[in-house]
Amino acid sequence: MVLHPLEGQHEPLGVDSIWALYAVALGLGTAETVYDTAAQSILPRVVRRDQLSRANGRLYAVELSANEFVGPPLSGFLVAAGVIAAFAAPGVLWLVAVVVLWPMRGSFRAGTADPGAGAKPEPEPGRAGDGRRTVRKRRIATVGTEIAEGLRFAWGNRLLRTFAMMTGGFNLASSAVMAIIVLFAVGPGSPMGLSEPAFGVLLATMAGGSVVGSFLVEGMERRFGRVVLIFGSVLTGALMVGTPALTTNPFLIGAAFVLGGVGVVASNVVMVSLRQRITPDRLPGRVNSAYRLVAWGTRPLGALLGGLVAEVWGLRAVFAVAAVVMLSLLTGMTVVRGRAMEDAEREAAEREESNDGPGTPEQVDPASSETHHTQS
Fold it and tell me: Is 9 helix (H, G, I), strand (E, B) or coil?
């Protein structure tokens, strides 16, 4: 909200434009990372556990619709109205978001680390300066202990570890493709020979499939089960990134993108919802951060890989390599079994029932007077 209006003011403030863009991009990227992690972490405190798949699906639908279908044309109108308007309008929208979020009722404060998990007792205070230094050291030690606890849980849980590695592999392959696809698709000298507007339509097919998938995922989960959805998402992902290696037909590639978009959202909803159900209530932020570090940290590596493969073997080779990487993720299905997910959820429910400590959220079903506890 603060950074975007400043971006439009770089010339009046005498700031070099490229460095202003770098600073704003860094700030926005950091803010979005914090927001995404916090939003996933508080959702189990807003809805019941059995409503998480539906809630995550709706959130994906709104986010994708805004990012892919509303945002781009709106930005075109704002740029036509002037640079200041283009950068000030997002700040206004974020202010509206803050106003909407502020009245949300509930306890969203993260819990603390388990006693004995490495936290040291506070020493007796000495002089005033020593006391302040002691408090700072204790806070640093506590933060370090809590981060370590989140990392231990995320990496120590076999399902979460497998999910993170599968998501990281998926992002590695898809980022490699997205890094070079404009060279493959746009321009009279490219293999596909698309114009810029046609390329935009091609990318919109993926976004459209994702929006459709976000609405269908709850029904598909009931009908086919979670294991089938994750397995299918790997296959549709391989189809999405591998089809351009076989054809330059935009209709076939667009159809593969639609199926890939449906599969991506379906697996995301299943994995995120399960992670929210089985993570202890005191750990959601830390576990989500550790998970996303592995799952999303491969994206820049994928872009680098795509460029290197294209340089050595050509553009089509990138799609073939990405498809092989996608198919290799099927090895994770030896861990991702229905019984394993059910056992993890049962253990989380038992842990929740035995935990009467502070920070356990309560959700009330509007259709009944019962009070339900959720485990994030």
Answer: coil
